[in-house]
Amino acid sequence: MSASSPTSPRLPQIREDTVFNRLVIFSPARSRRPSDFKFHPPDGAPNNNPNPPSCPFCLGRERECAPEIFRIPPGTDDWKIRVIENLYPALRRDLEGSQVGDRGEAGCDEGRRAVIGFGFHDVVIETPFHSIHLPDLSAAEIGEVVLSYRERVRQLSNHGSIEYVQVFKNYGASAGASMTHSHAQMIALPLVPPTVSARLDSMKEVFDKSGKCGICEAQSANILINESGHFFAVVPFAASFPFEVWIIPREHTPYFHDLDEQKAVDFGGLLKLILLKLSKQLNDPPYNYMIHSSPFHLPASHLPCAHWFIQIVPQLNAVGGFELGSGCYINPIFPEDAAEILSYEEED
Amino acid sequence: MSASSPTSPRLPQIREDTVFNRLVIFSPARSRRPSDFKFHPPDGAPNNNPNPPSCPFCLGRERECAPEIFRIPPGTDDWKIRVIENLYPALRRDLEGSQVGDRGEAGCDEGRRAVIGFGFHDVVIETPFHSIHLPDLSAAEIGEVVLSYRERVRQLSNHGSIEYVQVFKNYGASAGASMTHSHAQMIALPLVPPTVSARLDSMKEVFDKSGKCGICEAQSANILINESGHFFAVVPFAASFPFEVWIIPREHTPYFHDLDEQKAVDFGGLLKLILLKLSKQLNDPPYNYMIHSSPFHLPASHLPCAHWFIQIVPQLNAVGGFELGSGCYINPIFPEDAAEILSYEEED
Ligand SMILES: Nc1ncnc2c1ncn2[C@@H]1O[C@H](COP(=O)(O)OP(=O)(O)O[C@H]2O[C@H](CO)[C@@H](O)[C@H](O)[C@H]2O)[C@@H](O)[C@H]1O
Ligand SMILES: Nc1ncnc2c1ncn2[C@@H]1O[C@H](COP(=O)(O)OP(=O)(O)O[C@H]2O[C@H](CO)[C@@H](O)[C@H](O)[C@H]2O)[C@@H](O)[C@H]1O
């Protein structure tokens, strides 16, 4: 399973990420560069705060939260998971049908394109206990968390005005998190983001050219880390970030929210394993994960090419002006080398 | 010049950025959300280190640097600006014509796309003195710095295998900087990054539809901050980041490296003013700037639609999983409000 070690230092390569349509520069030399900053943020900020003065996501503090959408199990005080509205939402569910300027706010001029900020922004509280993090849960419990994401995405998919839902998790301040209690979020948008359309266009292009799905083909010996019955985990061939991992369903299927109960538990086990490995090998790094699913009204031309997956990104470095400007990423670690490190199995 | 204050709290909007083809959610409610992290990285990391144990970019330490490309003024020990090779380059200038696998390194299989990491990665040392930052220089001196960028881009534009040069600056650890001595960088690529092509395609689409250039049109009263003879500075209508500023040449022209001496000094003055304002209003934030110019071999169809500009982005928050996953940004500050704050003029 593990890749063979390179005999000599690797030369830099520019690889094409055909899913996100971006170039990634792999350059091991970059990892040796010095820094004269006294503090580096990723080291300076602990990911956890075991005793915050008050945490509205903890058991017993439900009244300090925005309204609940559902809990698991339903109708009990002794909940395991809660899906709630975000108290500081990016988009507002009460604005459906409103137009920019309706309520006297500043509109936009000269044909600039703006729509009112209608949409849904929800939080999934993944455990009632502040000290528990997602990978501390069992495979079956993580499966339940994943099913709660699925359940809420299903509800949102039935809303006629919603086109796309982004499910994501922020863990640690450098990954953007403002709350330390284990949670994920989802934002439901009335438009398909151009970046999401571009991903699906890019996958269609690969499909049309090669007759193959780029996500199905991502499984290759030297970048494979782990497998389960229904999923496999790889460091992608053109990973933008060091130690980035994708968990991919073996079944070529466009929608995350079609996941069934059995596969959710299988997925939970693999997600747990990967998060534990990243935590162990990289010393509990901040990370994000993003579920890349498909827009709800995907054109029939694109449906056969779509394949959902989850992208897990440890946040080890701040990105800089090169990435912001060019959209290219610089990754000092070749995926084959990252995969080798993440392939080590515990002895016990 | 300043925009009128909104009378009621603004409702969220989703705006379309037609240059970078991305959606941006403007949501003032987001700025009120709490955080239970004990430390937040942007506050924790000072941007400067006045006395690093040793800085290779300082006057007298030239021998600790990678080879020099040129200095200003030429042939003097008492230099003002040096353009040097990056000692830990992302791309290597000695690899032209090499193929992946040529030197026995691991190649790529199954038709995955990779090319050898040929290219140029240079550093511009903007002052010989460690304690001086770019906006401390005079307009004329900043003009000289900008002309040194231009000079190196011109040299690289004459290299037949180079397609695009990204000029950028990282200031402060949260903006990715590893060195505190004032500097910028540029990376010359043998391929046009897809994100850069997408920007030019997007501008062409606007041009074809409206007959107008989206960059020329960016000048509008409520987002304008400052003007000079040849440039204007705005917070763009669909700014991805709070207090992001673009400085745009009035002349509709595709290439930064066509800038002449007189305009460079004019530009230097406006850049200085904006950097001083950001530093004052936002308490010396980390920031990046990126020069968005055009690929050297831009197709004739796109040439009339292209217009270079510089994007200045204060780094006030870490981005999270939503932005990474969907490519949409959430900005808690409406551009009109940011522009109003940045429009205040000093009395003295
Ligand atoms: N009592 C309460 N009831 C209900 N909800 C509550 C609440 N108190 C707080 N919240 C919400 O809980 C959420 C916690 O989310 P995270 O910690 O994952 O990151 P956040 O969304 O703050 O920002 C990160 O993620 C977003 C999206 O990627 C980025 O835009 C941003 O820059 C980054 O910091 C916040 O959105 C907050 O509004
Ligand atoms: N003696 C010497 N001679 C010559 N050059 C020397 C040198 N010592 C150091 N250098 C180079 O000086 C540069 C300083 O650059 P910055 O501080 O702007 O950020 P850096 O490139 O490290 O990374 C940031 O910018 C890049 C590009 O955006 C991101 O990939 C990255 O994540 C982010 O931290 C480094 O590239 C380093 O290699």
Oligomer: homodimer
In CATH terms, what is the fold-level topology of chain A?
A: HIT family, subunit A
From the N-terminal CA to the C-terminal CA of chain A, the straight-line distance is 19 Å
> How many separate structural domains of chain A?
1
The helix count of chain A comes to 6
Main sheet specs of chain A? 10 strands, antiparallel
> What string gives the helices and strands of chain A in order?
EEHEEEEHEEHEEEHEEHEH
Secondary structural class of chain A: alpha+beta
Largest interface pair: A-B, 115 and 115 residues
Shape of chain A: globular
Q: What is the CATH C level class of chain A, in words?
A: Alpha Beta
Specify the CATH homologous superfamily of chain A.
HIT-like
Widest sheet: strand ordering of chain A: 3-4-6-8-7-12-13-11-10-9
Strand element count of chain A: 14
- Give the helix proportion of chain A (percent range): 10-25%
Give unreliable regions of chain A as ranges. Answer: 1-7
| CATH structural architecture of chain A | 2-Layer Sandwich
Q: Estimate what percentage of residues of chain A fall within beta strands.
A: 15-25%
Bound molecules: adenosine-5'-diphosphate-glucose
Could you tell me the radius of gyration of chain A in angstroms?
Answer: 21 Å
Organism (chains A, B): Platanthera zijinensis
GO molecular function (chains A, B): UDP-glucose:hexose-1-phosphate uridylyltransferase activity; zinc ion binding
Cofactor (chains A, B): Zn(2+)
Binding site for Zn(2+) (chains A, B): 55, 58, 130, 181
